[in-house]
Amino acid sequence: MDEEGEAARARRWTSQTVLVACVFLMIFNAGSVQNWARQQPPGWTQSTIDRLATVWVEQLALLGADQPVEGLRQLWREAQTLRFDGGRDKAAPEA
Questions:
Q1: Alpha-carbon gap, residue 81 to 88, rounded angstroms
Q2: Any alpha helices (H) in 1-95, and if so which ranges?
Q3: Most distant CA pair in the chain: distance in Å?
Q4: Mind listing the pLDDT tens digit for each residue in 73-84?
Q5: What DSSP state is assigned to residue 94?
Q6: Residue 14 dihedral angles phi and psi, to the nearest 5°
Q7: How far apart are CA 21 and CA 72, in angstroms?
Q8: Is 0.70 topped by the overall pTM?
Q9: Rounded Cα–Cα distance for residues 4 and 8 (Å)
């Protein structure tokens, strides 16, 4: 294969990798777009993105796509309550 063919193959591979990463993040990290939109100054664009993100997160929750993230979040909260002597704190820290 010549240099041009190798470069084209590398571009295809890179494009496919970026696409897969975007799809993965759209499914398993959908709440981040919602959080980002809520931090922006109020306006038409902000409210539109927030509403779309809210619907997207709700639909993914119906499919159970939020379960891996919630599971990891719960493990993190449990780890935060552990003490060095193996006991647990009485009140879990706020997340």
A1: 5
A2: 3-28, 30-38, 44-63, 67-81
A3: 66
A4: 899 998 888 877
A5: P
A6: -65, -45
A7: 19
A8: no
A9: 6
